[in-house]
Records
---
Amino acid sequence: VSITKQIVLYPFDTVRTRLQVSTSRRELFRSLYNTGILPPLVTRTPASAFFFACKDVFESQFRAAGVAPSTATTLAVFLGQFPKW
């Protein structure tokens, strides 16, 4: 999921950055993937995997403690963010 998300959203991030730096309209959509998609793929994909692993561990611990499933999921997602930072 993370790799697909990065590949789909990367061109939008590139265009948004180019608009913020006021690049000419002619260069706005030129070589969207040649500007460095590899670093986000290499860093964000393992980070997302780590998040989901932590979330699953927290969620199973909360459910084992008798916490309601929706509350366990909410708390697990909240706590899963911290190791990712």
---
Amino acid sequence: NVVPTAGGMVLMSLSDSGMQYLVAAARANCGVTAGRYMFEARILEVLSPAEPGRRSTATPRQHLRIGFSTSSSALYLGDTDESVCFDSEGLFMAERKRSPC
């Protein structure tokens, strides 16, 4: 449920008809073999869409994980031993364990 926009430079999650309650994930197609690498991510907007016809709904929790994984790992970072990531709560995740940075 992630859609590329702006010529593939921006990823946007779907938020219609209850889709805002699902987790969205994407993987880059650039491989790292050795050396030091840097990448940057920027949150352009935070959406809190309401469902039509409902007065009060639970606010979707905004969460971000960014890191590295092997090509055969699960799409969600931190859920396997093959990925490491940082999350929006300031925690580092590796080997299925969360620890403060």
---
Amino acid sequence: LKRLLFTRDGKAFAAMEGTLSLKTPSLIRRLPALCGVMFCLGAALEYTMCKTGFYNVTAVKEGQKAAARQAEEEEFWMRVKARRETRQAQVTIRS
């Protein structure tokens, strides 16, 4: 038996019914295999990242960024302190 179905754009297609129909895929049945495959892919990616030194390079770059940020902040506060001292010297009344 065939049943006529229509898509959103109005095109017709035939769908089989009964024992010849297409079965809907079961997620419950395929989920363990999918989890296993994804676990193996994640483990392989992690192994590759460890062996190539990705984490070491990332740690060094993050350390450099933090050091640069700290140096900028220290320089900024030194300029603020110098500016304050200059203004204080201008405002101080000499007797």
---
Amino acid sequence: KGLAVFRDPSQVTRTATSVNWHPEGSNNGKLAVSYAVLNFQDERLNNPNMPASSYIWDITNSNKPIVELVPPSPLCCLRYNPKSSDTLVGGSYNG
């Protein structure tokens, strides 16, 4: 067995706010991870370079995400649709 660490590629330290396996599980090998700073009035939120990106990772390669999702506001949660696995829904920090 192995251990994989999926680190946020941004320079600003952010928390992984949600982790969601692709509905096809290990057959597909994709993991959707949203990253954000959720602490109200955190000084990092004033940073004009605060990234809003979240990522889709291939579980066999934790070095680089396979897709970068760039919403207008950081995503607090991210989920695959279990009935339509090509559809992803996310909830943003600003609503």
